[in-house]
Amino acid sequence: MNHKFLVHGREDNVGVAVQDIKTGEDVIGVFLDTNGETTIKSNHDIPLGHKIALRSIKTGDFAFEYGETIGKATQDINPGDWVHIHNIKSARW
User: Fold this and answer.
1) What one-character DSSP code corresponds to residue 87?
2) What is the pTM of this model?
3) Residue pLDDT, tens place only, 39-58
4) Strands ordered across the beta sheet of 14-17
5) In 3D, which of 5, 87, 82, 12 has the Cα closest to residue 46?
6) How many other C-beta atoms are found inside a 10 Å radius of the C-beta of residue 67?
């Protein structure tokens, strides 16, 4: 497996790591809806199951996975950043 993250839909702005990702690594992601690929450089270590930003997400903007809102950015997030509780607040509560 060459890819390290999955993207559930084209409208998503985060992908999910299916392997640990290291800082500075150029990583390949696969879109589940098209099998297309994208490549991004990681700005952080991102553990398996955690999210990587695919595009810029400004403070107050929403993070999307499965085409659904999963959280709101509490700070600016750059492409390749680790997306987790330190920079998004859950949309569930």
Assistant:
1) T
2) 0.93
3) 999 999 999 999 999 999 99
4) 37-41, 26-31, 5-7, 14-17, 51-53, 82-83
5) 82
6) 11
